[in-house]
Write a sequence for this structure.
């Protein structure tokens, strides 16, 4: 009886004080996808006080690279420790961070050229609505951002360049900037699925959707300032050329963008160093001056 | 013995979790208002340990500016992070912070000239009693303060100048100081509601209630020291004239007041910098020397 | 003999190491003035390394207040300690600081209405050329600044408003802003020299030369940005009105200026706090971005 | 006994003065040049204890940009404060810093196409020997570095790419990377001296000497690692294209190089931030591991 009393006392105490008000990370959640005909996994970071409070939060979609999955930013990226610290120090403002799996079934953030695997459609038509329905997010563009590394940096580029109405900030890190031309597009598709034949029209359409340089050149004048860009790629990264050319192309096109080259290569050490800056940069849109 | 076991268990549990009863913010609460004939939203900040403790707290009413609502100080003002930090560092003493919505329905903190929309009456007759009934506030003047920015700085001025018996401290930031004369009053009312006609008496009464300079000149001798004032307006703020004239008028009238002009404009950056000073200043009244 | 040996050794050692490379202050120098028909005193601060190096330096003219003389900023203002610290911390860039006596003979920085005592002429025609000839100053406007407190704040205003071609920065602290109108001008002149009669034309000319508000209103459009202004006056200063009106007048006239009101009165505590900010502000002109 | 007295006297004197043999800067020295048929100015930074010690030092040639002269790094670049601090904190090792004037007579660090103005020859045949004869420098490649900004970044590139036997480190900041092709070369020469006619051979030879991309492509295999490179150019710099292409070209050519893009433009603020990193980077060659 005394035991029961004390257990209840503990429970009340903890509940009453909002004791477990620390941030939380779940890395094995899932949602059903009709588009991808399967359950899809995602990880989520909920900021300190998320459950105790009733306020709503901005949301960052944070994309992993090739060979990784929804657990990458959690395990290797130390997202919880880094976000907790950035929020506690006031360098960024609390937000929800969503990390979807783009590895299972087929790798990548794109719809394939034949629209048989439509990951991008899943992202916009199923994942985003699911998050905004099931978590207390602020559902306006201003309070939504996208970031990612390597293949996820490519996803960040293509999503925000083609859907500037959805994201206030986009932060590609060490980004794969897509095929440089039609030949490279063909070769890439061939390597991914040797058994599939694509028409020239399919290849060209895919190239135009996935080449970051093509997408930059296609930005209409009235959308040049639609997204706040923060682009970062180490000086020892093998993706130096695409990122340098993106910097030149955006300059010539007069698309405002922050661009950084720090010391380092294509490594988690680089991305963990970059993450607090990314969180701070996107908070500047969530904030108001 | 079992009791001892559980006491130790609790102690270990709390120690192990690094228990901190964190502050909480709710940004979507509401109360029913007969005066405004609708539910009215408000946000509230409850200090660390609020729920675990049984003590009562001072309360600050913190007013948002035009175009914002009860979430402004939460999202853009970083009230939770800033208040937590100020309390943790001992620069201010824990208090409850109430942030009501003055945007929905009709914008502003005033009763309109025809007393059809009576926000001020709602504030004093419904909101304050609701807060003091439903939260553990100290219901004396000494432990009650009001602050706000821009339009909310105007609300701070008018509320505290006309109700000096209710607030020990008042802190208008980058305040709108109301109409300068009757013509400006007419023009402002016209712009807000072109379809309404006001009598000269209505305009004049409204002017006398909303002009901060008029209210200062009307302060009776025995009320000059009734409220502690902290007034702050950036040197790049477009509201420079009203605030400079308030400084001169209060000096000539010998109303004690702290006055600050820092570097900056009409921005959240300015108000986030000011907030810790405001919390510290009003705490000096909650304290005892 | 041994004594001689060691004296030489010390001398060589000190000379060779540039050991006495600390900053120096002389507070009792003088130059001959034909205009004022007497020797005039001044104090000077020479930055660390001044003598050892052969480089040239920017120069700040730093004016004392009424009742003080060239030793004021040295003794009460702690100019050496404060400047040394600001330069060592990199908050300001090394400069020469000249502090002339405007107390002896007749008080103030102006020519009198009858041009019998011509301190302003002495300043520009004798003091400045003397300094630039005898010290390694950079003799361009860009590298010349003026600052001062109270009466010296008034001198700062009048000198820089009427000679914008000479100063890149001007920093009046707790400034006397001159007479508000002709009556006040007459009264001031009467109080200073009861025995002298002035014609109306003399009074008006003097008023137009010494009233800061008049001088601001007379600034031609192409000179509005000729001088960088940093104006600071405490919220408890008795000179609150003139300084607040200067802020309003410069805003309306669209003359860019930094304006600050900190906590404090007409005290050396206030000016010692302000001095590092002044040194930093004027260094921004000596620097290049 | 007298000896003892004087030894104590010295000790007290030195202790009392807080003796630090400070660094020195001279910004108005000159050397005679037969090649340029005139005296040429230079500034020099001598590290703390230079004169007291008898040791020799590494030397950095630090080049100014277009429109500036030998005083630029002293006044705007704060070379003394920044170098003192870097050495005191152990982030770099003491060195002599030489800043020659490349503005007087004709602007730039190159020989002109007709070899009538031979600044580069002056630099290598007169300035460097003069410095190494008159100051205690270590005259080996290992202890010699070159750095510079804008036009001086171009000088850094061309000098170190063509004379890799002379410099262990080269640090071009916000560098002008020279003409992109023959047409641009012709246009640049025309703009500088409209009255002079150049033969095609002269233009091509000049282009190959001044185009950084051409020089990179011409680096022989056995010289790829001859110089340690630290290249830095802000993301808002108008020289973004040349520097980004240099990064790509050096990568493809497998020339090891540190490359940085920080936040900022073509400003002294950027270069003052970069200078400590430059001093640290070149010190790594002066050091031994």
């Amino acid at each position: 009886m005394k035991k029961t009393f004390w257990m209840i006392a503990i429970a009340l105490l903890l509940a009453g004080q909002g004791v477990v008000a620390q941030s939380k990370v779940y890395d094995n959640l899932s949602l059903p996808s009709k588009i991808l005909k399967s359950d899809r996994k995602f990880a989520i970071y909920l900021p300190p006080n998320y459950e105790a409070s009733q306020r709503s939060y901005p949301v960052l979609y944070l994309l992993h690279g090739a060979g990784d999955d929804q657990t990458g930013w959690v395990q290797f990226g130390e997202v919880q420790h880094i976000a907790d610290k950035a929020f506690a120090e006031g360098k960024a403002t609390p937000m929800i961070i969503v990390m979807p799996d783009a590895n299972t079934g087929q790798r990548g953030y794109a719809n394939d050229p034949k629209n048989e695997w439509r990951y991008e459609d899943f992202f916009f038509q199923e994942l985003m609505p699911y998050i905004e329905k099931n978590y207390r997010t602020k559902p306006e563009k201003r309070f939504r951002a996208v970031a990612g590394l390597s293949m996820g940096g490519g996803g960040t580029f293509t999503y925000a360049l083609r859907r500037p109405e959805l994201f206030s900030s986009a932060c590609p890190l060490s980004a794969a900037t897509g095929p440089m031309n039609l030949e490279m597009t063909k070769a890439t598709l061939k390597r991914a699925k040797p058994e599939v034949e694509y028409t020239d029209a399919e290849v060209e359409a895919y190239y135009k959707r996935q080449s970051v340089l093509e997408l930059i050149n296609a930005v209409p004048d009235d959308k040049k300032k639609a997204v706040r860009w923060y682009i970062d790629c180490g000086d020892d990264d093998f993706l130096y050329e695409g990122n340098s050319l993106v910097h030149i192309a955006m300059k010539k096109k007069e698309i405002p963008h922050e661009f950084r080259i720090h010391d380092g290569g294509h490594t988690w050490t680089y991305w963990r160093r970059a993450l607090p800056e990314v969180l701070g940069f996107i908070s500047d849109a969530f904030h108001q001056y």
